[in-house]
Amino acid sequence: MPITSSAKKALRASKRKRVYNLARKDTLNASVKNVKKLVTTKSKEEAKKALSVAYQALDKAAKTGLIKKNNASRRKSRLAASIKKLG
Question: Is pLDDT of 86 > 90?
Answer without folding.
Answer: no
